[in-house]
Amino acid sequence: MTRRQRLETLFAQAAGYIDQQTGGVVPAIQPSTTFVRDENYQLLRDNNIYARDDNDIVRLAEKILATAENADDALVFPTGMAAIAALMRTVPAGETILMQSQIYWGTTKWVREYCDRRDIKLIEQDTSDTAAAVAAIEQASPTIVFVETPSNPWLRITDLQALAEATDRAGGVLAVDSTAAGPAISNPIDLGAHIVMHSGTKSINGHSDVLAGVLAIDDENRALWEHIKVDRHDAGAVIGSFEAYLLIRGMRTLPVRMERMSENAMAVATYLQGHDQVDHVYYPGLESHEAHELAKKQMQNGFGPLLSFTVKGDKQRALDVVGKLNLFKRATSLGGVESLVEHRFTIESTTGIPETLIRLSVGIEHIDDLIADLDSALS
Ligand SMILES: *Cc1c(COP(=O)(O)O)cnc(C)c1O
């Protein structure tokens, strides 16, 4: 599927959707789980049997996302983790997964336990070190290389083109968790990646009221895609009609939201970098970021809502700052219109997260209010 419209147009118009029965410009929610056959036992529509796979509003969400990612096909799942699990379940016992180290903790935890149970060899590798990552791929010939860029919460950037080439040579599949950027900012398939994954719960929905996951693929003829489709059907990891409706409703404003969030996040990062109580700011939009040039090549229209910083002092000082914030709500997750703050060490104390690290998801509020909130918490 090649994108003919710019992303703003594609999302605003929900890929040109018009309800054929009513002329509505918004998709109807069809809650039925099952579809009748006529007196000759023929289906009224041959791709409508049972809602596990046959759901028009889910199909519409998938069409929008596949088009946005320049993908051949896309599947929507009930959560991001369900999408990751369906992907990982394609790997047979005895083979190897190479996963980026220090990424979203939920992924790390699940994949570790899964590989353990399945007798799959797991290599955890810092893929932002391109030379080391390419060498590890060449040496291990992994079935799946799984990376997250920008990574959560370290904001590390992985060179997708270099890793796609190495993975191709090794005969594997490069899968990219692109949640922190989203389809309005980064399109990994254009850079050679084979699979793009999103937690739709985050910026794609953008209103903190839907759980969803996405996989999109560069070539639907890959055996792995058939395996994933069968797995979603058989294991039943499907999203409901109401959630798919909300996901599409949220997606219509995705490019506009991302633009504002990125602008705000850049301003917050710049402000924090100049603050004498702040030790280090992790944001790929900053020229001081270790991979700023690479990020500029891989991301368009901004650098996303996610940023982390460390404060001077100790764990208590970080918790004090977090506790004094008013507008930034103390809650996990990211990519919603409201700004959130997290003390990640409290959640994952064994993964090397500094005690003084504060993670922000910057929303679409007025930037002056956000800076004022940070200013009073830090002083
Ligand atoms: C939240 C998140 C996930 C998991 O998504 P859920 O929808 O919560 O299952 C995966 N990857 C990243 C980077 C995330 O932020």
What does this structure look like?
Belongs to the trans-sulfuration enzymes family. Keywords: Pyridoxal phosphate, Transferase. This is PLP-dependent transferase. There is one protein chain. The mean pLDDT is 96. The chain has 2 domains: 7-251, 3-Layer(aba) Sandwich (Aspartate Aminotransferase, domain 2), CATH 3.40.640; 255-378, Aspartate Aminotransferase, domain 1, CATH 3.90.1150. 37% of the residues lie in helices and 15% in strands. It has a 7-stranded mixed β-sheet with strand order 1-7-6-5-4-2-3, sandwiched between helices. It has a 5-stranded mixed β-sheet with strand order 8-9-12-11-10. The protein contains 13 helices and 12 strands. The chain is globular. The protein has helices at 7-12, 56-68, 80-88, 105-118, 130-140, 160-170, 223-235, 241-251, 254-273, 292-298, 315-324, 344-347, 367-378, and strands at residues 73-77, 96-100, 121-125, 144-148, 173-177, 195-199, 213-217, 278-282, 306-311, 329-330, 340-342, 357-361. β4 (144-148), α6 and β5 (173-177) form a beta-alpha-beta unit. α3 (80-88) runs parallel beside α4 (105-118), α5 packs parallel to α6 and α11 crosses α13. With 379 residues, it is of the alpha/beta class. The N and C termini lie far apart (52 Å). Bound molecules: pyridoxal-5'-phosphate.
